[in-house]
């Protein structure tokens, strides 16, 4: 079998991280990299800031130059968070008969918020004989797949809590701005009202994924976003919050069944949580038979986790039956230490 | 769609637990129950010690009476731990064109120790258009699937530790005897030498499953079993260990790659661990990028966990492409709170 061929669309922190990860792996080649603006035309090793001897130093190109019929086995699209924004890119790839994995959070379960676009993508994928998966660390693993895997040991469930307490300190300037680090409470409320502060994207997707797998129809999904106001000065490498300003965002959500909360999501994210005695971690607490009381501490860092999930799900996505799929349709995620080709079904290989 | 039809083969603690769990669920019926000896002919509610109003009070029967062509969608076989012992039963079911889930530990990944029998079962399943899965709490979830799911967030891995520290106190007389609770160290050594003390069955299966998913070829799998000798008197409901006698079994195993340990398994199981300050739990510790440091404490109790895993994997097994499958081939495990029929693909339904 020829090496698995991968194109990366979006050479920001996520796409670049996936390129680096893939270049250290066996049986897989990065055959195309897409971006816009000043990166176009640059050798990929320049953009990655590192050389990878056994890999070709391809040039960053435009989508028009790279996305040709069956130009690769899969394209990793890391450009957007929202289904509506990622739609045209996914469509272009699928119409060129190439599988897609995207880190767009809403694409982890697009029928939660965009059922019509999800339906269109499913049809397009089937028509073209390829698969589309949205994944990442969250949604994609911590607040949905990990929860569901633990419910596998349960006879019955009364209530589920998924809690992800994470530090924003490892992230760069873009995340600091997106999450409102250092702004005043008034600015935060303004940003929340006008939609410029998104906070975590993914609760409706994670909750809907859990509900669908469990086989329950929820009455409602409620979501809230509040400022985490610090009472001490906090300083991270790329962001700073003076006492009285915003050091992070507390996101909560509920999945309601028969008027009662069945699924609780709690996701406070802030810079320098340790400074105020907050211990970071990923928690799954299930009130059921049996009880589940799981913690992974410290939390899996979002950046590396999303990079790894998108790369590690390549075989499952290539092997999947054509269509729009989600993490609950595919075999369990896992790392790949060996040859990527060993994980691909012969009949599913495109090029 | 008609209700999912299930036959249970083996009405011991596991099979009875599965029957009870299924009788509380929607869209699924227990249409047959098989045992030998004195239970044959008894109404199932008598054997379960409980009535389940919306279920038929079927009689426990022999395999010959119950296993007929397409008599059910799936048979849950809970009679054995070893592939060689379960083989004829699985064969009989498969030749009657019915899917199989078995709690036999070695069947979680039978090619680890019985590659020829695994090959035969795979062929039989394909010839008859059905699937065979071995699962349970361990192997099946805690020391393999949960480990693999967490590796999904990893770019690279240097070493994996899976640790399950559990209490044997909830188990009955049979387990107390199997694990040598209360015997002398000399008796333990004797039982270990003559093979009458098995300890935990499943390390080669869990380690092989992890290695196969990661795509690595191991040089060797090593395994050890030692007595946990208590220095205080311990007393559980069905077993007792005086100071100086055996209160449990310490099982360890290693998966070796290029002369170095890649996968470590550590599974001490004993009665009344709390009495000597041992905290029970399920641990996944991955030295990689990123690090994983997960604990579920207390551990998922083995009985209810195995019952739930076997029942919850029914849809994935019925829906699977024909053949011998394992937990790494199928969609992620999860609980089922809704109608079982909603989880079954139309074309996969047998009766």
TrEMBL record, chains A, B:
Gene3D superfamilies linked: NAD(P)-binding Rossmann-like Domain
Residues annotated as domain Gfo/Idh/MocA-like oxidoreductase N-terminal: 5-131
Annotated signal sequence range: none
Superkingdom of this protein's organism: Bacteria
A Pfam match: DAP_DH_C
InterPro entries per record: DAP_DH_C (IPR045760), Gfo/Idh/MocA-like_OxRdtase_N (IPR000683), NAD(P)-bd_dom_sf (IPR036291)
The 2,4-diaminopentanoate dehydrogenase C-terminal domain, residue ranges: 141-345
Residue stretches in coiled coil: none
Protein name (database record): Gfo/Idh/MocA family oxidoreductase
Natural source organism: Candidatus Enterococcus murrayae
């Amino acid at each position: 079998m020829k090496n698995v061929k991968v194109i990366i669309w979006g050479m920001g922190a996520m796409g670049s991280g996936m390129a680096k990860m893939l270049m250290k792996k066996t049986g897989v080649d990065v055959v195309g990299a897409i971006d816009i603006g000043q990166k176009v035309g640059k050798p990929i090793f320049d953009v990655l800031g590192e050389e990878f001897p056994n890999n070709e130093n391809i040039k960053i190109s435009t989508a028009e130059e790279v996305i040709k019929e069956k130009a690769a086995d899969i394209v990793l699209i890391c450009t957007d968070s929202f289904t509506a924004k990622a739609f045209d890119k996914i469509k272009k790839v699928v119409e060129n008969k190439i599988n897609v994995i995207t880190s767009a959070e809403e694409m982890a379960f697009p029928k939660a918020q965009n059922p019509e676009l999800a339906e269109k993508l499913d049809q397009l994928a089937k028509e073209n004989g390829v698969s589309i998966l949205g994944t990442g660390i969250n949604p994609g693993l911590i607040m949905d797949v990990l929860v569901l895997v633990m419910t596998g040991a349960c006879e019955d469930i009364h209530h589920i809590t998924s809690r992800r307490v994470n530090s924003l300190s490892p992230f760069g300037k873009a995340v600091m701005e997106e999450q409102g680090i250092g702004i005043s409470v008034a600015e935060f409320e303004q940003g929340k009202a006008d939609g410029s502060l998104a906070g975590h994207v993914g609760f409706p997707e994670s909750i809907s994924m859990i509900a669908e797998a469990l086989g329950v129809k929820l009455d409602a999904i409620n979501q809230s976003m509040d400022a985490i106001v610090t009472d001490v000065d906090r300083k991270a490498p790329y962001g700073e919050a003076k006492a009285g300003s915003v050091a992070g965002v507390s996101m909560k959500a509920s999945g309601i069944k028969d008027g009662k909360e069945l699924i609780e999501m709690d996701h406070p994210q802030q810079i320098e949580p340790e400074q105020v005695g907050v211990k970071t971690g990923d928690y799954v607490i299930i009130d059921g038979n049996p009880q589940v009381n799981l913690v992974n501490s410290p939390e899996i860092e979002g950046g590396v986790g999303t990079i790894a999930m998108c790369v590690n799900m390549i075989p499952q996505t290539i092997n999947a039956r054509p269509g729009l799929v989600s993490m609950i349709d595919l075999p369990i995620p896992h790392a790949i230490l060996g040859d990527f080709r060993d994980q691909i079904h012969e009949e599913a290989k495109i090029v």
